[in-house]
Amino acid sequence: MSSLPAQHLQETAAWTQQTFEVSVPVNISFEQLQDLLATRLKQLISKDFGQFIYLLYHIDVSEKKVKAILDDAAADGTDPYRPIAALIIERQLQKIATRASFKKNNLPDDEEKW
């Protein structure tokens, strides 16, 4: 994930802090954010699975991808939290990048672009 703008990652970190009610240090790396979010997901899944599902739906993470991660984890006994955290972070980064590209394409003075 080194090709993404640092600003997008920091925006995602701030969003993560707000959405998942965790403390996120400034200038966090993708891997550190993934670890932090994975820890929070583990807590959330064990205490309030319904809230976890709601957040996935609200964030618009692919249900198919999450199910595949959970199935793989159940089959081979691995931890599903880091891969799910990566999906969530990547989805939020996509949203930020999309918004940024639309802002770049806007013309001044509300002119229509044909």
Task: Fill in the keyword field for this structure.
114 residues; mainly alpha; 5 helices; globular
Explain how this protein is built.
This protein is mainly α. It has helices at 6-20, 30-47, 49-59, 63-76, 81-105. Helix 2 crosses helix 3 and helix 2 crosses helix 5 (81-105).
Order of helices and strands: HHHHH
The quaternary organization reads as: single chain
Proportion of β residues? under 5%
- Large-scale geometry: globular
Number of strands: 0
Annotation field: number of helices? 5
Uncertain segments = none
N→C terminal distance? 34 Å
Query: Gyration radius, to the nearest Å?
Result: 16 Å
Helix share, percent: over 70%
Major pleated sheet: none
| Overall SS class | mainly alpha
Provide mean pLDDT, rounded. 88
Describe the secondary structure blueprint for this structure.
Blueprint (H helix, E strand, L loop, with lengths): L5 H15 L9 H18 L1 H11 L3 H14 L4 H25 L9
Helix pairs in contact: 1-2, 1-5, 2-3, 2-5
